[in-house]
Amino acid sequence: MKAIRKITPAGALERLQILCSAREKCTGDIKEKLRQWNISGAESAVIISNLIRHKFIDDRRYAGYFVRDKQKLNKWGKEKIRYALMNKGLSKEIIDEALEELQVENYEEALRELLIKKSRELNKYDPYEKKNRLIRFAAQRGFDYELIFRLVDDYVRD
C-alpha cells in the first residue's frame, strides 16, 4: 500500500496553478480539491485569493465557458445549466450574467435537433404518449416549458 504524502500549502498552490493553467476551474472546484488534500480553511483562503489575484481562477470566465460548452456540446437547456452552476457554488449574479450570453438561435435549434432525433425513436407510441415523452425528455435536458410546448407539436404526427 502506498503511503499518502501530506501536501503542504505551498505544494498545493503549485499543483493548483498547474491544474488551473491546463483547465478552467471555478472557486468551488478549488475549495473541494483543497478539502480533499486536508488543507485548513485559513490556508485555503490564502491559496484561493492568490489564485484569483494571479488570474488562475475567475468564476465569471468559468461560467461563460461552462455555458457555451454545455449548450454547444451537450445540448443542455438553460435550467440544467443554471442548476449545474449553482452546484458549483457560483453566485446568482454570475450565473445570470453567463446565461444571458446564450445564443437564442442556437438554443432553439439545439432543442429542434434533439426533438427530431428523439421523435424518430418514439415511432411505436401513439401521438399523445409520444408528445408526453418528448416533453419530459426536453425538460430533463433543461429547456424551458414555454419553448418546449411551442416546438413539440411539430414532431408529433399521427
Give an overview in words:
- With 158 residues, the chain is mainly alpha-helical.
- It folds into three domains: 9-53, no CATH class; 59-99; 104-155.
- It is 69% helix and 0% strand.
- It has nine helices and no strands.
- Helix 5 (78-87) packs antiparallel against helix 6 and helix 8 (127-140) packs antiparallel against helix 9.
- The longest helix is centred in the last third of the chain and has 18 residues, at 104-121.
- The chain is elongated, with a radius of gyration of 21 Å.
- It starts with 8 loop residues before the first helix and ends in a 6-residue tail after the last helix.
In short:
This protein is mainly α.
Structural class estimated from helices and strands: mainly alpha
Order of helical and strand elements: HHHHHHHHH
Largest sheet: none
* Helical coverage, percent range: 55-70%
Uncertain regions: pLDDT < 50 for 5+ in a row? Answer: none
Radius of gyration: 21 Å
Average the pLDDT over all residues and give the rounded result: 89
- Shape descriptor reads elongated
Strand content: under 5%
Number of strands: 0
- The total number of structural domains is 3
